[in-house]
Design a protein that fits this description.
Blueprint: E1 4-7, H1 11-23, E2 27-33, H2 40-44, E3 47-52, H3 63-73, E4 77-79, H4 89-97, E5 101-102, H5 107-114, H6 116-125, E6 133-134, H7 141-151, E7 155-163, E8 166-171, H8 177-192, E9 197-201, E10 206-215, E11 221-233, E12 236-242, H9 249-265, E13 270-279, E14 289-295, H10 302-309, H11 313-321, E15 338-345, E16 347-348, E17 354-355, E18 358-359, E19 362-364, E20 371-375, E21 382-383, E22 390-398, H12 401-413, E23 416-418, H13 424-432, H14 434-437, H15 445-454, H16 461-469, E24 489-494, E25 497-502, E26 515-519, E27 522-528, E28 543-545, E29 550-555, E30 562-563, E31 568-574, E32 577-582, E33 587-592, E34 599-600, E35 605-611
Parallel strand pairs: 1-2, 1-4, 2-3, 4-5
Antiparallel strand pairs: 6-9, 7-8, 7-9, 10-11, 10-13, 11-12, 12-15, 13-14, 15-22, 16-17, 18-21, 19-23, 20-22, 24-25, 24-27, 26-27, 28-35, 29-31, 29-34, 30-33, 31-32, 33-35
Helix pairs in contact: 4-5, 12-13
Length: 613
C-alpha cells in the first residue's frame, strides 16, 4: 500500500485528496506556487514544497519541478487531481520512469483518449455510438467550412485536445464560421498547445450525460452509474446531479454498458468518465445518445457519484494504484437517493460573470442535512487572478431529487461571502427555474434564460430595514411611532447605489459606520449616504478599463476609428478565458493604449471612447 503521496495540484481537489489520504494513514505532500504560499492545501498537507512563480506554466505545469519535489520529500506516488497535468501522458510516463506510482490510468490510455478525433474513431470501432462530424487532419479554414456545410448547421467547433468547455464554439450560420474557427484555434493553442479542431453536428436540445467508470490492473471494469451535467453556461458545467432525470432502467443499462466497453477498449485503469450527448427533445433513449469524449481523470463533479453510491472514489484510486483489485463488483453497486452539486465561483453574474478577486474577509457556507462542502479556501484567504476562481463545490444529498434540490438551495441561500462577488444567487435562481425543477434540462437553458438568472439581486425590504436601523442613532428616531401616519425614511448607500429605506425600528445606541447585509447567498455593504459623492454611480466617461489582470490577445480597432455601441474593441485573456470588451456607445476611439501581447493590470486604461457629436 502507498505510504506517502504528493498531490500535483492545488485548491479544493488537493484538499479533497489530502482528506482521504489522511483517513487511510498516507503521508501527504503539497506543492505550491508563490500565490498559494498560504493556501489551504498547503496548510493541510503533512509537508509542502514551493515549486515556482504564480503563473501555472511556471509552477503547476512544470513536471520536472513536481518530480523533484517528490524525490526531495520521499513521496512514493503522485496524484494529479484534475486539470493541470492530470491528462498529460508524457508526465504520467515520466512519473513511472522515475520509479514512482502514478495514481491514474496508463499513459497509453491517456494518449488514446486525449484527442477527440482519434478517440471517436476508436469508440466507433468498439461499438460505441458517436455523433456525426469531421475528425480529419485537414485544418485549412476553407476545407473545414465546406465540411461544416456538409454536416449542416448548427455545428460545434471543438479543440481535439480540449476540455472544460475551452476550445469550443457553437456556429449557427456559415457567415460566422471563419471568425469562430479563428477564435477557437487561438484559445486551443493557448490552453492546450494544440490548435487542431474537429467539426461536429450540434444536437438539438442536447443533454450532457456522463458515466463514471473504474478499472483495476486485474482486468476488472465497473461503472458507478450516470451523472447529468446538462445545466451549463458557455459549455462550462454549473450544476451536476446523479442520477440523471428521466433515466429508465433499460436506457441506463445500455448507456453504462457502452461506457464499460469504451473503458475496456483502452485497457483503462483507475477513475475515468465517459461523456455522452443525448437528444433531449424527447424521452431519453439509447438510440439517441452518442459518445463525446473520455476524461481520463477524476472529474470535478465526482462527489455526486460518491453521495449516491457510498463509494470514496479517491480511496479507490489509491487502492487501485497500489495494485489492489476493485473493492466492489458491479452487482454490489447500487444507487441510493439523489445528489446535486453546484460550483460556487468568485465571479459577478451581473457583470458578465467576470471573475472577482481579493481577500475573503467573510466566508460562511450554508448547512443542510445531507450537505457537504469541498473547498480549497478559508476566511481570510486570497482569491488569486492566476487560477480557476472556484470557491467551493456545494453538494447536497436527498432521498429524491426534490429533496436534494431543496437542500442545495438552502445551503446556497445561507452562504455569505464578502467582498468577493459570487454566483450564489445565480445558482439559487437556476435551481428554482421551472424547467430545472421539473427535470427538463438541456445545455441551452441558461443561454435562453441567463439574463434573468444573472440579474443583480436586491435584499428584501425586511432585511434592509433591519440593517438600516442599526446605522441610525436612537435620538434620530425620537418620537417616531411604528404606526405613525407618515413613515420616516433615510438615504443609504447599498454597494455605492443610493437607496431610500424606511426606518421602522428604534435605532441603535451605538450605530455602525457600515453593515454587511446578507441574504439569498449574496452580501451587500450598507452605509449612510454621504453627499460628498464618494458613493458614485456608473462611470459614463467611455473609459475602457481592464476588468482584471490579463493579456491583450487581439485589438480590433485603431485610434480615431468610428465605432458603434456593442462593437468589439479588443479581447483580453484572463483566468484561462477570453473576455471581449466592447464600445459602451456610438463614438470615436479617442485614445488607444492596448497592444496585442501586452500584459495589463486591473483597471488599466486600455481605450477611451468619445461620444459622437
Amino acid at each position: 500500500m502507498i505510504q506517502s503521496l504528493l498531490i500535483a495540484n492545488r485548491g479544493e481537489i488537493a484538499c479533497r485528496v489530502i482528506r482521504t489520504a489522511r483517513q487511510m494513514g498516507i503521508r501527504t505532500v503539497a506543492v505550491y506556487s508563490d500565490a498559494d504560499a498560504d493556501a489551504l492545501h498547503v496548510r493541510e498537507a503533512d509537508e509542502a514544497v514551493h515549486i515556482g512563480p504564480s503563473p501555472a506554466r511556471e509552477s503547476y505545469l512544470v513536471g520536472e519541478k513536481i518530480l523533484a519535489a517528490a524525490k526531495a520529500t520521499g513521496a512514493e506516488a503522485i496524484h494529479p487531481g484534475y486539470g493541470f497535468l492530470s491528462e498529460n501522458a508524457e508526465f504520467a510516463q515520466a512519473v513511472i520512469d522515475a520509479g514512482l506510482v502514478w495514481v491514474g490510468p496508463n499513459p497509453s490510455s491517456i494518449t488514446a483518449m486525449g484527442l477527440k478525433d482519434a478517440a471517436k474513431t476508436l469508440m466507433a470501432a468498439a461499438g460505441v455510438p458517436v455523433t456525426p462530424g469531421y475528425m480529419g487532419e485537414n485544418q485549412a479554414p476553407a476545407f473545414l467550412a465546406d465540411e461544416a456545410e456538409k454536416i449542416g448547421y448548427p455545428v460545434l467547433i471543438k479543440a481535439v485536445a480540449g476540455g472544460g468547455g475551452k476550445g469550443m464554439r457553437l456556429v449557427e450560420a456559415p457567415e460566422a464560421f471563419v471568425d469562430a474557427l479563428a477564435s477557437c484555434k487561438r484559445e486551443a493553442a493557448s490552453s492546450f498547445g494544440n490548435d487542431h479542431v474537429l467539426i461536429e453536428k450540434y444536437i438539438a436540445s442536447p443533454r450532457h450525460i456522463e458515466v463514471q467508470v473504474f478499472g483495476d490492473r486485474h482486468g476488472n471494469v465497473v461503472h458507478l452509474f450516470e451523472r447529468d451535467c446538462s445545466l451549463q453556461r458557455r459549455h462550462q458545467k454549473v450544476i451536476e446531479e446523479a442520477p440523471a432525470p428521466g433515466m429508465d432502467a433499460a436506457t441506463r443499462e445500455a448507456l453504462c454498458a457502452a461506457a464499460v466497453r469504451a473503458a475496456k477498449a483502452v485497457d483503462y485503469v483507475g477513475a475515468g468518465t465517459i461523456e455522452f450527448i443525448a437528444d433531449g427533445s424527447g424521452p431519453l433513449s439509447a438510440d439517441r445518445i452518442w459518445f463525446m469524449e473520455m476524461n481520463t481523470r477524476l472529474q470535478v463533479e465526482h462527489p455526486v457519484t460518491e453521495e449516491i453510491t457510498g463509494v470514496d472514489l479517491v480511496e479507490w484510486q489509491l487502492l487501485v494504484a497500489s495494485g489492489q483489485p476493485l473493492p466492489k463488483a458491479q452487482q454490489d453497486l447500487e444507487i441510493h437517493g439523489w445528489a446535486m452539486e453546484a460550483r460556487l465561483y468568485a465571479e459577478d453574474p451581473a457583470k458578465g460573470f467576470l471573475p472577482s478577486i481579493g481577500t475573503l474577509e467573510l466566508l460562511e457556507f450554508g448547512e443542510a442535512e445531507g450537505g457537504r462542502i469541498d473547498t480549497g479556501v478559508y476566511e481570510g484567504a486570497e482569491v488569486s487572478p492566476f487560477y480557476d476562481p472556484m470557491i467551493a463545490k456545494v453538494i447536497a444529498w436527498g432521498e429524491d431529487r426534490d429533496e436534494a434540490r431543496g437542500a442545495l438551495g438552502e445551503m446556497l441561500e445561507d452562504t455569505a461571502v464578502w467582498p468577493v462577488r459570487t454566483n450564489a444567487s445565480f445558482l439559487v435562481k437556476a435551481l428554482q427555474h421551472p424547467d430545472f425543477a421539473a427535470g427538463k434540462v438541456d445545455t441551452g437553458l441558461i443561454g435562453r434564460d441567463g439574463e434573468a438568472l444573472a440579474e443583480a439581486p436586491m435584499p428584501s425590504d425586511e432585511v434592509l430595514e433591519a440593517a438600516a436601523n442599526s446605522l441610525v442613532p436612537i435620538t434620530s428616531l425620537a418620537g417616531f411611532r411604528l404606526n405613525a401616519a407618515s413613515a420616516r425614511s433615510a438615504w443609504f448607500s447599498l454597494d455605492g447605489e443610493k437607496v431610500e429605506i424606511a426606518l421602522t425600528g428604534e435605532g441603535s445606541d451605538e450605530p455602525d459606520d457600515a453593515v454587511l447585509v446578507t441574504e439569498q447567498g449574496q452580501a451587500w455593504l450598507l452605509s449612510p449616504w454621504r453627499r460628498d459623492g464618494v458613493h458614485g454611480g456608473a462611470d459614463a466617461s467611455g473609459a475602457i478599463l481592464a476588468p482584471m489582470p490579463g493579456k491583450v490577445i487581439a485589438v480590433e480597432v485603431a485610434q480615431g476609428q468610428t465605432v458603434t455601441k456593442g462593437q468589439k474593441l479588443l479581447t483580453l485573456e484572463a483566468m484561462k478565458m477570453e473576455h471581449t470588451l466592447t464600445a459602451p456607445f456610438d463614438g470615436v476611439v479617442a485614445e488607444l493604449n492596448a497592444t496585442a501581447g501586452a500584459q495589463v493590470q486591473v483597471e488599466t486604461l486600455l481605450a477611451r471612447i468619445e461620444e459622437s457629436a
